[in-house]
Amino acid sequence: MSFQNPVFIPGPTNIPEAIRKACDMPTLDHRSAAFGKLFRPAVAGVRRVLGMEGGEVIILPSTGTGGWEAAITNTLSPGDRVLAARFGMFSHRWIDLCQRHGLEVEIIETPWGQGAPVAAIEAALKADTAGRIKAVLATHNETATGVRSDIAGIRRAMDAAGHGAMLFVDGVSSIGSMPFDMAGWGVDIAVAGSQKGFMLPAGLAILGVSDKALAAMEGARLPRTFFDFRDMLRSYAGGGYPYTPAVGLIAGLAKSIEMLEEEGLEAVYARHARLAEGVRRAVAAWGMRPCAASADLYSETVTAVVVPPGCNGTDLVKLAAEKYGVAFGVGLGEVAGKVFRIGHLGMLTDVMVLGGLATAEMCMADLGWGVRLGSGVAAAAEFYRGSAVPMAMAAE
Amino acid sequence: MSFQNPVFIPGPTNIPEAIRKACDMPTLDHRSAAFGKLFRPAVAGVRRVLGMEGGEVIILPSTGTGGWEAAITNTLSPGDRVLAARFGMFSHRWIDLCQRHGLEVEIIETPWGQGAPVAAIEAALKADTAGRIKAVLATHNETATGVRSDIAGIRRAMDAAGHGAMLFVDGVSSIGSMPFDMAGWGVDIAVAGSQKGFMLPAGLAILGVSDKALAAMEGARLPRTFFDFRDMLRSYAGGGYPYTPAVGLIAGLAKSIEMLEEEGLEAVYARHARLAEGVRRAVAAWGMRPCAASADLYSETVTAVVVPPGCNGTDLVKLAAEKYGVAFGVGLGEVAGKVFRIGHLGMLTDVMVLGGLATAEMCMADLGWGVRLGSGVAAAAEFYRGSAVPMAMAAE
Amino acid sequence: MSFQNPVFIPGPTNIPEAIRKACDMPTLDHRSAAFGKLFRPAVAGVRRVLGMEGGEVIILPSTGTGGWEAAITNTLSPGDRVLAARFGMFSHRWIDLCQRHGLEVEIIETPWGQGAPVAAIEAALKADTAGRIKAVLATHNETATGVRSDIAGIRRAMDAAGHGAMLFVDGVSSIGSMPFDMAGWGVDIAVAGSQKGFMLPAGLAILGVSDKALAAMEGARLPRTFFDFRDMLRSYAGGGYPYTPAVGLIAGLAKSIEMLEEEGLEAVYARHARLAEGVRRAVAAWGMRPCAASADLYSETVTAVVVPPGCNGTDLVKLAAEKYGVAFGVGLGEVAGKVFRIGHLGMLTDVMVLGGLATAEMCMADLGWGVRLGSGVAAAAEFYRGSAVPMAMAAE
Amino acid sequence: MSFQNPVFIPGPTNIPEAIRKACDMPTLDHRSAAFGKLFRPAVAGVRRVLGMEGGEVIILPSTGTGGWEAAITNTLSPGDRVLAARFGMFSHRWIDLCQRHGLEVEIIETPWGQGAPVAAIEAALKADTAGRIKAVLATHNETATGVRSDIAGIRRAMDAAGHGAMLFVDGVSSIGSMPFDMAGWGVDIAVAGSQKGFMLPAGLAILGVSDKALAAMEGARLPRTFFDFRDMLRSYAGGGYPYTPAVGLIAGLAKSIEMLEEEGLEAVYARHARLAEGVRRAVAAWGMRPCAASADLYSETVTAVVVPPGCNGTDLVKLAAEKYGVAFGVGLGEVAGKVFRIGHLGMLTDVMVLGGLATAEMCMADLGWGVRLGSGVAAAAEFYRGSAVPMAMAAE
């Protein structure tokens, strides 16, 4: 028997029926006009979700990691300096990637559980009087700790420093689930993936690229072919692709954006915030706290729950998988064992989340963590029932 | 956004992925040899699930109601007498069907919440010294009240009365989820549907027919064509069908049985019993009780929950649908308003059931029923965690 | 390896992607408001495709045979007389069904290859001065011989005879593929199935019922429950169903009609006529002829090809299936062996038909029928290329 | 109406039902044990299809272009010299990629329509007495011209020259459709894609990497992260992935290999050869010839048809798409306009190919190319019927 519990990992998310069906298509000649009919609305929709003005959208048959690589190889040259804060596994990995491609990374070490340190970034930029820093890298939503950074604040810091660096933002686990304002925040490259807020299977890196970043592209000397924006943009102009695109995922992306906009982006963000708040109420009822150091840092897509002293979050994740067939996320890197993570992004409902919380409680009871069964569920339920947005059961 | 909560109605059930995929097939010529490759394993599997010895399986592109009609029109003649107890909406409907087809029904009126009254059946059969009763009709699992009747007991009563009537059993909401022993119980026709224990979409009536019932078929004078077993059996013999079969559902039926047998029928029954017991623990924690009058009558596929005085079960069902997008069953007929029903059959897991129970609790709180949030969830969770059968997350 | 050749049987047809996806849905509570959102457009669409004014649409989880049975059991009483012509296997079967349900059938025996004999029908009605004939049964498209009858002509004959009988039409293999005008032709019950012009899997009988037939319903004394229009109409009024409906097929029916109307019904009919004409050109090029006796009788959905003397059409069908994995239809009844049938209805394209014709030619060559390879294909191709309606490759 | 003609492009291919269903799966936690159950058989199967001994399989969420890039960035360093012949668009693009990554490419210019020139390769290697050439690049099946090169011959040339360079082979449009013997031919890296012989959607680059190439990996200084084999192999060892894998495609790959091996790899290759020969018979009947210069060079997956003087192959491709909804491939680069391409790989049958050929003939007639309708179809049909492997219509 195959049992189909929802997943509670911070991505890939549960995939809506309509998106699965959009992705699952017969072969379509990607050199034909029919491809453009799928591709153009996907691109136009990404512009709206990212809040772009000007610039270009690049969609690569790749993943978020590929998106990070594409961002730097298309705009920078060997030896270029970038500025980045490290405060979780994903900010760490982007830094590591830059170093492996021969960039010099000025790292602001920041405690895990904190967000990107706006003041320190401003200071670093002000100190860079020679303008050696070509780009500031920021992880909007650090998936390892459930921390949302203040990208608007980073933009203000950059402006305050009067520094001309580009701003590259990893929005993989935020875009489509939390407000994102590429133009308003002056983001030069935003990196998203298909498998988070867009609720698709993994397989697409989705980038918004500003005009400023496109200008940098011409002089960038890091080698690239698969990720080369120039080939992409030349092919796009003719309605095509420089190689075989992931047609089904692109069709699914168009459908995803149609669904997000049918619900309304603001409603989508509010739904994520509401579900996240319910999870946090449950965490509080358990006598625990999020890894994120303060309420302004709380991610609306993932909560890293700090487990009690003497407990190991990884035990809970393993038990949930093996005993109950439910997937949560383990702690990574510095917080391995110290947290377990509940993903609450994409297509989720109250009933799904409550089932997930009840499962976490069973695991805690099994592990002797001293949590009262039903306590977290009740706290979340009380919040959900007071804040529910009536909805009919959808036919689709 | 289409939200995909599981359903908690007593059928149709949630459909497993693998069954949806088996049903969703391109057109196959039903007059070709390929059809037999799907049909034969489905038929053979039905025999095993029903516990048949001898007799024939009939699979009609219809529903349980069609199965009831086929059972009587293929074996009885106008004016024939049948014996049936009425103790719920579905036993009532079968009686009504018999009357509409010109049969004389000797009805044993039985309180809703009770099962088929074995002693009264025995008495009625003993009283029928002229042998006018041609068939005893029994509803194995009365879906309206969540009551399981004792079919083995009815067989013993028939034997004790030394009566030669046929025994027809409505197993629509039991077969595939609760033990069924057609040969052992001496059942002459068992009626199942695709959309309950077999976890398929509605669209098939599935019947097990004993040799005794087949003998009666030749002399039966109720008119029928679509439901005529004779046409069916003639066509089956040639690997075909007298008209266009529902090929996809038959493919899905074969897959369903493969899944049930892979898990093991005993394990499937144990799983249903375990999930049902968790639901009943929640009901008790809410201070309520099942409609079924005693523990030996509890259905393992559906619990009709008697709501407190002054409360209306239908209000809960409406609220759950409109506010939370979750489907429960309303009370029907005599128990309309007095109960709401939680279906717990087919592909279900702890996490799904707990989410459903949490949703019911939110509704109760919304309606001011005085139930403590988390109370039922905790009671079910305590039971589930103590009785869980470890399982890995299935890949399929 | 599973090879997915299109089928060339006269139904079930090849199923379009979009329809397969519409049918393949997760379980939806059929007692919820969501069901009505699927059901109402399906019903409204059927009205348009059938050309109804007044009356009601009935959709049964059954097949065309069930539709025939529903038509008579809901409107007639035991001993009632009906008038019908027999000129193929499907007109024969409806007559047989009537007889099995205790009706008296006045049969006009007509050579296979001819259509319903309008003059003979008129004569029979005129002779029925006592008005004993309650209904005239007509098979619009006799699938066994590929003959289309003149329903408008039958209506004129009935009017000329001044006879008040009802007119019941089997449109199973015509509706959705050839023009149908229920109101204009004064049809009282039209029977369609899901698996032909609607391009769905088998599993629905779809009936248009006139106000006159609905009036007859009240007095009809043939027994029925599963097929009872009264239960259906009572339930429909509340947005529901008297038993579990085939929700996925109803969703697919709504999608089917959306697709047919997006193309335009007239365009759909023209497409069928065009593909059929190509097939007939191929048949002529092979030196053969359709079973239909004259051009005005040609079906646009199926061509029964009369094979040369000494040849056996069933051999071709078997060889095509076993050697090439392609499904054609065998001859049935009187024309068994004398014809093979090429279905050309539903979602078909030039390239599909040409592939099918080429396969038929290979079989003819294998069987030594003396047909030149490529001859039929060339004739059809010449016609198709001269009459093609440009189309882009669809994305969906 | 969406019409679903098969495609006749040289990839992506038509996707079998069973593979579409394997790919279309609900979200599975890729960090759970369940992922390994999908991944390990996919990897093991790739080993068998590639004919590997030793070495490692790398599966990247990318495309063939990404596979080319991964091959060189994981084994070479800036300034390294590689040897490659250019005789078509795809051999050209790999050369271009190498140059963009800072490699020095010794190019053997070869007429389009020829294969990799074994003698010239041997001469170049013999001339490289300093051993500066680190790798020989060979395009096994040049998709632009329909030419298969002799990889075994290249290995013999390398051995004859006593040269220690690695041998990298682009098998994107050959692997899974034509014999490939990685161990026997001494291939160090073989690059395949998901969307050709494996019949999946695009989205995976699949590489076989020899132990010799793995040894080179440690010293390779071309920058890479997304494509880095070292991260992959470290993660694989723990049953995981360095980032989110394309789980559905990997499940589909496992299914693809299961299907290929169920048919038998030799039977798969024979089927491709048989279908290709039929296409070439049609081409000859049209009075045309393949672009491949001689019979030993004929590709079994794609035929580039040289069009008559004064004709333009691109016109045919456009017309087929716009008028008939059928996709063929245009000529690329040097042979743009001079050829059109018929892909005949993946899940294809006689009836599909014959339909495609008939469509090409209609286009030729429309364009006034002086080809007799039916001529090519007849030639192919004659060959197919004489060489058919009987098969039943598959149920799946």
UniProtKB/TrEMBL annotation, chains A, B, C, D:
Source species, domain of life: Bacteria
UniProt KW keywords: Aminotransferase, Pyridoxal phosphate, Transferase
Molecular function terms, GO-annotated: alanine-glyoxylate transaminase activity; L-serine-pyruvate transaminase activity
Swiss-Prot/TrEMBL cofactor(s): pyridoxal 5'-phosphate
One of the GO BP terms on file: glycine biosynthetic process, by transamination of glyoxylate
Matching InterPro entries: Aminotrans_V_dom, Aminotrans_V_PyrdxlP_BS, AspGlyoxATase, PyrdxlP-dep_Trfase, PyrdxlP-dep_Trfase_major, PyrdxlP-dep_Trfase_small, SP_NH2Trfase/AEP_transaminase
Domain Aminotransferase class V: 29-331
Residues recorded with modification N6-(pyridoxal phosphate)lysine: K196
Protein residues bound to substrate: R341
Keyword Transferase: yes
NCBIfam families assigned: AspGlyoxATaseBhcA
Family: Belongs to the class-V pyridoxal-phosphate-dependent aminotransferase family.
PANTHER family: ALANINE--GLYOXYLATE AMINOTRANSFERASE 1, AMINOTRANSFERASE CLASS V
Name of the featured protein: Aminotransferase class V-fold PLP-dependent enzyme
